Amino acid sequence: MHKSPGAAAFRLQFAARARDRRLARRVLQGASRFLSTAGGVSIRVPRHPVQPAPTLLFESEPDAPQHPCNRRPLAPDAGGGRRSGRLPGARRAHGPRGHHRSDQLQQHGRKRRRGRRPCVPCANGQSCVDGKDCQSGYCATSNGAASGTCEAKKKQGLQCSTDEECGTSHCTDGVCCDVVSCGDECLSCAGATPGTCKPRTGAKCGVTCGDGEVTSSTCDSAGKCAGQASTMPCMSNFGCDPVKKACNKDCSSNAECASTGFCVGPAHMCAGCGVYPPGSMCTVGMGGCETCDPNGDNACVKTCDDVGECVITRTLDASKGPVRLVCNDQCNGIAVNCLGPFPCEVICNTNGCFGLTLNCGKDGPCKLTCTGAGCPDAKMKCGSNECIATCPMGTAAIVTQSCADSCGCAKVNCL
Predict the structure, then answer these.
(1) Which domain does 246 fall in, by range?
(2) In a shared domain, residues 235 and 311
(3) N or C terminus of the chain with fewer C-beta within 10 Å?
(4) How far is CA 216 from CA 204, 229, 245, 286, in A?
(5) Which pTM was predicted?
(6) In the chain, how many domains are there?
(7) Which of 269, 274, 314 is nearest to 296 (CA)?
(8) pLDDT of 212-267, one tens digit each?
(9) Is 113 within a domain?
(10) Is 297 found in the same domain as 211?
(11) Pair 301, 345 in one domain
(12) Hey, how many other C-beta atoms are within 10 angstroms of the C-beta on 318?
């Protein structure tokens, strides 16, 4: 096939722009041989001057911390822009059958590569994203930061939180250890010889929880749980946490107290079931008190014995001291609400409290006492403290009791 001088000029132009010197030398040699045989034919000099190969630029990966290992080279471009899919100035031509084919120079040209610059591990003190960026293999980060600082790995026996921190590759029992796990509760890497599994002589083992008590044994010098079991009660009516295997120190519900106590909300302390704080002295005429019970708890006594006196919801304020409501032929079909940490009691005499609903306070002891034929079909909704319904023997009085989380929910002689 006859080669035109124009094609040789394009070969010369693109060879001058190529980065690969061997390719440029090969193309120039081919063009020289062609021109020597093209006698007398004039060749048009390329319009654009030859430009030197540009210097590689670097850009950072999107959203990546700025440190040397994240830079990557951009492909050069003679026009100052990004690289395109072809070499600058490359032409395409149609073959005899209309198929697209590349110019001969494009066929021989080497495609430019866009790749990541080889990462050189960073020295201690330099910024990093993970351990792969560091010569030491450890990138120290804090507070969930995306990047950190390269640091030397910790020696055996030093405190740690992750395996990556340790030269031994094992963070066991909070220190850099020579093994992944000591394998027994009577062995520890954080004992007398930090970094090496040793027996925890005299330490507690085999801990179990009971109702307000903790049972445990002790580790012997051979690293075995072989000591005699002992039981220790929890103080102040607290219960035992089955996860921590230790006595609770505060509470948010009765479940965190022993069965003998209940959780006092404001103080988050467990009090004994039926116990209440010391209150103020009862004074007749104060707070609706008609009389004061001189026996027992010195309760403020209120009485419903007049027709129509107690036919709507009543509230008994037990926030300052014990309070008691006596219903004589009254309190039928109404609700009585108790408020406060002190004892609250409703006494239903004959023909009183038919269909009564007693809503106990959350923390105070609560009682429903039925005498004679009182309390038929009464309901009692308990709080956290003691909750007791008492009926006379042989009366077959029916009291529906909702215990909830009461520490002492009981019915005496009631159905």
Answers:
(1) 204-272
(2) no
(3) N
(4) 6, 5, 10, 54
(5) 0.56
(6) 3
(7) 274
(8) 999 999 999 888 998 889 999 999 999 999 999 999 999 999 999 999 999 987 78
(9) no
(10) no
(11) yes
(12) 27
Assess whether 260 and 361 both reside in one domain.
Answer: no
Residue 195: helix, strand or coil by DSSP? coil
pLDDT, tens digit (0-9, with 9 covering 90-100), for 277-324 = 887 788 898 888 999 987 777 899 999 988 888 999 999 999 999 999
Q: How many other CB atoms are there within 10 angstroms of residue 187's CB atom?
A: 21
Q: Which residue has the tokens 């120190």?
A: 249
The residue assigned the tokens 């009682």 is: 367
Q: What distance in Å separates the CA atoms of residue 139 and residue 143, rounded to the nearest whole number?
A: 13
Task: For residues 18 and 109, give the distance between their C-alpha atoms in angstroms, rounded to a whole number.
Answer: 8
**DSSP secondary structure string for all residues of 10-49:** HHHHHHHH-S-HHHHHHHHHHHHHHHHTSTT---PPPSSP
What DSSP string describes 164-181? GGBTTS-EETTEE-SSS-
Q: What is the DSSP string of 88-105?
A: TT--EEE-TTS-EEE-HH
Pairing of strands 399-402, 269-272: unpaired
Residues 390 and 316 in one domain: yes
In the numeric block, the tokens 């006859």 are attached to 2
Distance CA 379, CA 368 (A): 9
Q: Is 176 exposed, middle or buried (0-12, 13-18, 19+ CB in 10 A)?
A: buried
**Alpha-carbon distances, residue 169 vs 137, 197, 214 (angstroms):** 11, 15, 36
Residue 195 domain flag: no
User: Quick one: how many helices (H) and strands (E) in the chain?
Assistant: 3, 30
Give Cα 322 to chain centroid, integer Å.
Answer: 44
